Amino acid sequence: MVRELLRLNQDPASVITLEDPIEAELRSVPQMRVGQLSDGDDCGYAAALRLALRQNAKALLVG
Questions:
Q1: H or E element, residue 52
Q2: Which three-class secondary structure state does DSSP give residue 46?
Q3: Nearest 10 degrees: CA dihedral of 37, 40, 44, 50?
């Protein structure tokens, strides 16, 4: 799966991942950890999905 993400991510920010927890750090792929933010606010899958869709990515991995 990681290989496919890297292949799809040829253009800047064309792939975004939403994960809890982030299983593999990928330097060239924007990744968002779903769960509690550093300031204590909750960022669930629904809120994270809305944020990711605003970025106009070609592919979105939710895991």
A1: helix 45-53
A2: helix
A3: -70
Contacts of 36 (CB under 8 A, 6+ apart): 42, 43
Please state the length of the chain.
63
| pLDDT tens figures, 1-59 | 778 777 777 766 578 889 888 888 888 888 888 876 656 666 788 888 888 888 888 88
Enumerate residues 6+ apart whose C-beta is below 8 A from 16. 29, 30, 31, 32, 52, 55, 57, 59, 60, 61
**Domain spans in the chain, listed from the N-terminal domain onward:** 2-62
